[in-house]
Design goal:
The complex is a heterodimer. Chain A is of the alpha/beta class. Chain A contains 5 helices and 5 strands. The longest helix of chain B has 53 residues. The chains are: A alpha/beta, B alpha+beta.
């Protein structure tokens, strides 16, 4: 971990999920930026790139996977953690095969989330 | 057989036969006139007293006058013309010049024409002229005075001019000869020729005997009076005395033998007197021939006039008395006939009619009487009652020929479909104008009796029919009058009284309250509403009333239905029928249970299919709750808790928890197995709930559901879960119809709106490939899905129909299909 606080972007159409995750990250002294849709996140991306993004899979408009594909297409290398309330195994397969760094099913434990974030950020930092 | 025709005298068609017969008769009469004229002329010549040219008696004129009095005026020309050859044949042989002969024919005709015209104008024609005093006087004045005077002026002038005779002498001789001829010969001819000769009754035969005796006496006395040669030596008294012997016979004739006998007696006397006078014998033989003739003529005229008047007077009185007797007899028959049918039971009517046809036939003296009635097919008249004087087959109904003079049947319409046909008079006499209305009156009595019998028979048939219908019904039926009293009932009520219902056995006169207590059970609270329902039908405020109730009984609960309909008659009333509907009810309940089972089963399977989306729906709030709770733990562990933050966290946790609870509540509701409950529902809320339940599904499928609600939607009455199931089914179908996530325009629109007046409509519109809109889509096991049961839409339809609504589908013009259902709007209960 670097000395500066990590910036985690949260993209979820659910207000309740955004609020609670922002609180959780603040409690663990991470910086959080929340977005209600994939488009909102992509628009804000150039001004302040986060260290990793927590993407909700099922959203109206762009889905989590759509956002991930657009990032890859734009050459942006950003660790992504897909979160979903749909715990179907095929969904997991679909996400991982699409190049997702990590995949979490809602509801998830704070430890799991933080560990995953730490893992993906470190992996991204490695050359 | 004929079609019915109006019954009036002289109706019907004139047939070719009678027309030809009439022509033949006219020709025969013309020949007879000619022959009689010729013979009369010869007789007239024979009675001429030399040296006078005029005869004492001139029969040809009498023949012409009698002909014109008997024949209708349209035949006068013909018959006068027929006499012309006879005139020429009789007179051209004499020494008279042709001009005189021709002129005399004209004067002869003139007398006949004047006499016949005057008499016909004032006294009628035919023998009836001599049946009353007034007409006889007119005859005497017209034919006996006026006509001879007119023709004698002409006659005498012709004779005087052409032969140089003394005008006044000729006039006087002619006048008296013509007057005598007219007064004696014309009545005799008219009576004899115009009379209808019938001899049926013994009384008439006695009259003929009497007439013969009288004629014999008269002839003997007349012969001795007029044929005795009386010389100038006899004293004057004898001149007139013999005539006195004639008078008793003539009075006898006038009193006993009527105008006919009188006129024939006069002719007899006349013949004897003139025969004697012409031969120079008789009481006036001592006078010069001319005076002798004149005396005879005067005596005969003076005898004829009062005798004819007397005969007419007596005849008139007799006819009046006969008419009166006839009238009384008729009225007695009519009253006895009427009495015979009063209060007569209809089964006796036929027999009584037969008896009275015989009595009537005998009274009227006709050959037969028959009653014809239109057959049931209204095709022909068939004889139903008949009487004949002699055993002979009942005659058919025949039309009498119009005024051909022959007496025929007299058909009288007695009812709308019946004819009483009275046969010809046994004595051959034609129907008199006075008789026909009498017979019609009698016939009407038969008509009334028949009409009443028909009405009574019809009534009895309908009563029997009603009783038969009532007893053959399987339901228990009671007929109520306007006040609710039982006026008729069948035997179906006994099971109720045997059921120990506490009510007395139902009988006539019971009230509709008794009916309800017996049927429903005296203690049941449902008796009240049933009585009110029947009363409403009796009052006409409700068109009908229907009521179902269960009744405890061993071994199973039984169901009954009461149906009340108004009695369609002016007096009002109602029919109450009670039917055991247990079987139907059991089947209905069973069907309802099956439907609910199936609905529940399909609901559960639908929920199974929605498992992923339900998990999603639950995991969202759970994720929020967990993150919030762990953040709070962290804040608290850090030892510097921001209480406001903690409060906000707890509020969010509560909200998320409620959300999760809602999901579980809805899920439980859908999985619950409970009897349907009708409550007032706002369809907007209901559809919104279902849409919320499916929001995760939509999200997972990557399509959007647009809600378009009518804010003013009235409530409906229904079962929440069942209607939610319908909406859920339609929404899931719509979402499934729209293919993979890459299809563009993936929107499902759900609308609520007020449909047709009084209905609420829900429409679910997809943008899929549309449906085959043949209604089969709602049939069970119809599916297009690989793993579908094909029950969803079938259940949806059965639910909507159980709610009294309608469900249907149509393809959109823009692609895809729209499923709609409509339910009746419920009137919300008054606050």
């Amino acid at each position: 971990m670097s000395g500066a606080r990590l910036l985690v972007a949260v993209v979820d159409d659910e207000e309740s999920v955004r609020t609670s995750l922002r609180r959780l990250f603040r409690a663990f002294e991470l910086e959080a930026a929340t977005f209600a849709s994939g488009q909102e996140f992509l628009d804000a991306l150039p001004s302040r790139p986060p260290d990793c993004v927590v993407l909700d899979l099922q959203m109206p408009g762009l889905s989590g996977l759509d956002v991930q594909r657009l990032l890859a297409a734009g050459g942006v290398r950003l660790p992504t953690i897909i979160i979903t309330a749909d715990d179907a195994p095929e969904t997991r397969e679909r996400c991982l095969s699409a190049g997702t760094t990590a995949y979490l099913c809602k509801p998830f434990d704070d430890g799991t989330l933080l560990a995953t974030i730490a893992r993906v950020v470190e992996a991204a930092a490695e050359p | 057989m004929i079609a019915p025709a109006p019954a009036r005298p002289g109706w019907g068609r004139r047939l070719p036969g009678p027309r030809a017969r009439a022509a033949a008769r006219t020709a025969a009469v013309a020949v007879a006139v000619a022959v009689a004229y010729y013979v009369g002329s010869r007789v007239g010549f024979a009675l001429t007293v030399p040296p006078m040219s005029p005869s004492m008696l001139w029969p040809p004129n009498a023949i012409l006058t009698a002909t014109l009095l008997l024949a209708p005026p349209r035949r006068w020309g013909l018959y006068l013309l027929a006499a012309f050859p006879a005139h020429l044949a009789a007179q051209l042989g004499t020494a008279w010049p042709t001009v005189l002969v021709l002129a005399l024919f004209l004067t002869n005709c003139s007398e006949a024409i004047v006499a016949a015209t005057v008499v016909r104008r004032f006294a009628g024609h035919g023998p009836a002229i001599f049946h009353s005093l007034r007409t006889v006087v007119i005859f005497i004045v017209g034919a006996g005075v006026l006509a001879p005077m007119v023709s004698s002026f002409l006659d005498a002038a012709v004779v005087a001019v052409l032969r140089g005779d003394d005008y006044w002498l000729v006039w006087r001789t002619r006048l008296f000869a013509n007057a005598l001829t007219a007064l004696t010969l014309v009545p005799a001819l008219v009576m004899v020729v115009g009379r209808r000769w019938t001899w049926p009754r013994p009384e008439v035969q006695r009259r003929i005997l009497e007439a013969a005796v009288l004629w014999l006496g008269l002839s003997v006395v007349g012969w001795s009076v007029f044929e005795e040669p009386i010389g100038p030596s006899d004293f004057d008294a004898l001149l007139t005395i013999p005539l006195a012997f004639i008078v008793p016979f003539l009075v006898w004739a006038a009193v006993r033998l009527g105008p006919t006998g009188t006129s024939l007696s006069l002719v007899t006397v006349e013949a004897l007197a003139i025969g004697g006078g012409a031969a120079g014998r008789g009481p006036f033989a001592i006078l010069p021939p001319v005076d002798n003739v004149l005396s005879l003529q005067v005596v005969l005229i003076v005898l004829a006039v009062p005798l004819m008047c007397l005969a007419a007077l007596i005849e008139e009185r007799q006819r009046t008395r006969q008419a009166l007797e006839e009238r009384l007899r008729f009225e007695e028959v009519l009253s006895r006939l009427s009495r015979a049918f009063v209060h007569l039971p209809s089964e006796d009517v036929d027999r009584t009619i037969d008896v009275w046809l015989r009595r009537l036939g005998e009274h009227l003296g006709v050959r037969h009487i028959t009653i014809f009635q239109l057959s049931s097919g209204a095709k022909s008249f068939v004889p139903t009652h008949s009487w004949t004087a002699q055993p002979e087959p009942a005659p058919g109904l025949e039309l009498p020929a119009a005024d051909d003079g022959s007496p025929g049947d007299l058909p009288l319409l007695i009812t709308d479909s019946g004819v009483l046909s009275v046969g010809a008079n046994a004595d051959g006499a034609p129907w008199s104008a006075a008789r026909i209305p009498q017979v019609r009156l009698l016939a009407e009595v038969f008509g009334n009796a028949l009409a009443r019998k028909q009405a009574e028979d019809a009534l009895r048939v309908s009563e029997t029919m009603n009783a038969a219908i009532l007893s053959s019904l399987t339901s228990s039926v009671a007929v109520l009058d306007r006040r609710g009293r039982v006026v008729a009932l069948n035997e179906g009520w006994s099971p109720f009284s045997a059921n120990g219902s506490g009510a007395e056995e139902l009988g006539l006169g019971a009230s509709h309250g008794d009916v309800c207590r017996l049927a429903i059970g005296a203690d049941s609270p449902m008796v009240g509403p049933a009585v009110v329902g029947i009363q409403a039908v009796l009052d006409g405020t409700e068109p009908s009333f229907r009521f179902e109730w269960p009744r405890d009984g061993a071994p199973v609960e039984r169901w009954f239905e009461m149906a009340v309909v108004p009695l369609n008659r002016t007096e009002g009333g109602a029919v109450v029928s009670l039917t055991d509907i247990t079987r139907r009810k059991q089947m209905e309940i069973e069907a309802q249970r099956m439907r609910q089972e199936l609905a529940h089963f399909t609901r559960v399977s639908a929920m199974g299919e929605l498992a992923a989306s339900l998990a999603h729906e639950l995991n969202q709030p759970l994720a929020g709750i967990l993150a919030n709770a762990q953040a709070a733990q962290r804040f608290l562990a850090a030892g510097r808790p921001d209480l406001d933050e903690i409060r906000a966290i707890l509020a969010d946790i509560v909200a998320d928890d409620r959300r999760a609870g809602d999901v579980i509540r809805r899920l439980r509701e859908m999985l619950r197995k409970a009897a349907p409950q009708r409550v007032l529902l706002d369809l907007n809320t209901l559809v919104g709930d279902v849409a919320k339940m499916l929001s995760s599904d939509a999200l997972i499928r990557g399509l959007s559901v647009v809600l378009d609600f009518d804010a003013k939607l009235p409530p409906v009455s229904g079962d929440r879960v069942e209607l939610q199931q319908v909406v859920l089914n339609l929404l899931v179908n719509a979402m499934e119809a729209m293919g993979g996530p890459d299809t563009p325009g993936r929107i499902v629109v759900v609308r609520t709106a007020c449909g047709e007046p009084g209905t609420v409509e829900v429409a679910v519109q997809d943008a899929g490939t549309g449906v085959v809109a043949d209604g089969q889509i709602f049939e069970p096991f119809y599916t297009t899905k690989a793993d579908g049961l094909g029950m969803g839409l079938s259940i949806a339809r059965s639910i909507i129909e159980a709610h009294g609504g309608r469900i249907w589908v149509e393809n959109n013009s823009t692609g895809g299909a729209t499923f709609r259902f409509a339910l009746a709007a419920a009137v919300p209960p008054a606050p």
